[in-house]
Design brief:
The protein is an alpha/beta fold and 326 residues long. The chain is 39% helix and 18% strand. The protein has a seven-stranded mixed beta sheet with strand order 3-2-1-4-5-10-11, with helices on both faces. α1 runs parallel beside α9 (265-283), α5 packs across α6 and α6 (179-187) packs parallel to α11.
């Protein structure tokens, strides 16, 4: 691969607040370094369809505060096939694109890794998912905003729960990871938190609630990660409702509202840092790597490691949540 002259940028997988800030940083860093920039609409499907648009500095004005992604995002089954990736490569070469920045999660990075094994055209990834579940980075774009959205919602639910002596099971997103549930549970003073990472006694919901009711609480908030082995908030509430007849049991599934909203200051700043770092990585001849943040510093992690290795929650925080719920 020769000198980088033009780069493409796309967003893939689930949208996350802060993706626009990353697009803005990629675009303006590239222009600052004398590169042309092409926006690829609708993720990998845009590579298949040659859905390309030129991006100027003005193209990304007034987007840093917007949720979602101006480039749109989509799932693409065709890119999973060798034939689809070959078509994508031919379209990139026809457009004279020398490298691509992909903003997304592990599924997006899996596609980029396969592409990099087949073709000599570099991809650099930026972790963009509210789940915060990507190995090799402390932070993923959108996580902070989603977490704050959950906290605001649960605070409001707590108000009505206290007024009516209710026990609320609140289901939050996070796929197969419990980062949103664990952190929001601690931040809202939840009486119990159920996440995929807890096992054994840490999953004894009845014991958690009984231990937390020594002060005869007027409300109980149970945070449930959507990927929890118990089957979700509705299933768990149904299993335990007869044990807690003193409470009016309700379920609230927060759903996709967690994906929306104006990104937090942290998401805007970190997305900007990662967008800048992704372009610098391409200029440094990096390929098949993700730019991440570890201990506040920019790091490069291979797609192979980012996708194959699991990121675990801090189990000290599980203990903390249990201690503080009494």
């Amino acid at each position: 691969m020769g000198k980088i002259r033009k780069i493409g940028v796309l967003t893939s997988g689930g949208d996350a607040p802060g993706m626009n800030a990353a697009i803005r940083a990629v675009t303006r860093t590239a222009i600052y370094n004398g590169l042309e920039v092409t926006g690829i609409r609708h993720g990998y499907q845009g590579l298949i369809d040659s859905n390309f648009i030129p991006l100027q500095a003005s193209s990304v004005s007034d987007i840093i505060q917007r949720g979602g992604t101006i480039l749109k995002t989509a799932r693409c089954e065709e890119f999973r096939t060798p034939e689809g990736r070959r078509k994508a490569y031919n379209n990139l070469r026809s457009a004279q694109i020398d490298g691509v920045v992909v903003i997304g999660g592990d599924g997006s990075f899996t596609g980029a890794r396969l592409f990099g094994e087949e073709f000599d055209l570099p991809f650099v990834g930026i972790p963009g998912t509210i789940d915060n579940d990507i190995y090799g980075t402390d932070y993923t774009i959108g996580y902070d905003t989603a977490l704050n959205t959950v906290v605001q919602c649960v605070d409001k639910i707590r108000d009505t729960a206290s007024a009516h002596n209710r026990m609320f099971f609140v289901e939050v997103m996070g796929a197969e990871a419990g980062f949103i549930a664990l952190y929001s549970g601690i931040a809202t003073g939840a009486e119990a938190i159920l996440i995929p990472e807890t096992k054994g006694e840490d999953r004894d919901l009845s014991k958690m609630i009984m231990n937390g009711n020594t002060r005869k609480k007027s409300s109980n908030i149970i945070i449930v990660a959507e990927g929890d082995e118990g089957g979700g908030a509705f299933a768990i509430a149904e299993k335990v409702k007869n044990q807690f007849k003193d409470y009016d049991i309700r379920v609230s599934v927060l759903g996709h509202l967690q994906r929306g909203g104006s990104p937090s200051a942290i998401d805007r700043v970190n997305a900007s840092r990662l967008g800048h770092a992704a372009v610098e990585a391409l200029l440094d001849d990096q390929k098949s790597v993700m730019v991440g943040l570890m201990n506040g510093e920019i790091v490069l992690v291979s797609f192979r490691r980012a996708v194959k290795l699991d990121k675990d929650v801090d189990h000290n925080l599980i203990d903390l949540a249990r201690i503080l719920s009494v």
